[in-house]
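To assess whether ligand presence alters the predicted conformation, the chain was also submitted together with guanosine-5'-monophosphate. Input:
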Amino acid sequence: MKLNLCSITIINLFLLLNFSVLCLSQDFDFFYFVQQWPGSYCDTKQHCCYPKTGKPAADFGIHGLWPNYNDGGYPSNCDPDSRFDKSEVSDLIRTMEKEWPTLSCPSNDGIKFWTHEWVKHGTCSESELDQRQYFEAAIALKRKANLLSALTNAGIEPNDEFYKLEEIRDAIKEAIGYTPGIECNVDSLGNSQLYQVYLCVDTSGADFIECPLLPRARCGSSIQFPKF
Ligand code: 5GP
Ligand code: 5GP
């Protein structure tokens, strides 16, 4: 069969299209969905600032949804042309204030935190989720993974008491179905505290998966769950 110039051009365009789809669809392996316990953030920083909307609920808050590689590395700041555009998520802001509150100082409305998370992490999953989908995905994951009820149902309460790392891990695994990564911090008295919980999510941003790799725990054997 003779190929004329036109069909060769079409074949080339087709190959180019497939190649770019391949490039776009392979820029990370999974997400870490990270939630923080506000009491531990405030204890470790020795101070924290409540957002302009007031003291957040005594609940885990979203820290971020972070694209990651299976070898433990991760991409960051992937698209210098993409800024956080509040108008794309204007109807989600109320929910984000509740579920993704900022505790950094000085007190602010959260836009700085969400901008940072979008620019550093969200821009690295743009092949899967646009800005609106990225924030929607994080909110939906928080609703699917209620860490506080997982823990309190197992008798693990934010009451300044100490609990075993395995107890915390098992309670979350029991309720959510997947083994979490637990990150601790150390307060000024030297107590190891429950700071962040990592769950792994597939590249669609919708479903939890077993973690290909758990983050380093840095927890003592006995972990404080501080009041907030
Ligand atoms: P730290 O050094 O306090 O553990 O982390 C500082 C920041 O680096 C985090 O807030 C997050 O933006 C990024 N980071 C730390 N560890 C990981 C990781 O395992 N995966 C990804 N994707 N980002 C991380
Ligand atoms: P990372 O790069 O560690 O994902 O994001 C942490 C950045 O977000 C830091 O610059 C920190 O000051 C800012 N930030 C604002 N609010 C919060 C908060 O409530 N928790 C944490 N961990 N970082 C916050």
